[in-house]
Here is the input.
Amino acid sequence: MNNPTMNYFPEQDIIHLIITHEEEVDSVELSPNITAELNANGELIGVEILKASLFLRDFILESTQAKLMQLQQSRHIK
Here is the structure.
């Protein structure tokens, strides 16, 4: 990877991760609101996340809850 950069567009609530500055030839929807941008060789060159604030909120909550569950389980095992 070449020094990826990330841009946030608050008016549209979009995060755009740029991996390389190659021309986008195709794109693939990975899940609702997440699109992978591909170059002519089908390689990943960027990612676009729509409704980014909701995505980050949900990701952070899920990750935090999973980690807390792991900590609680490890405390009960001892």
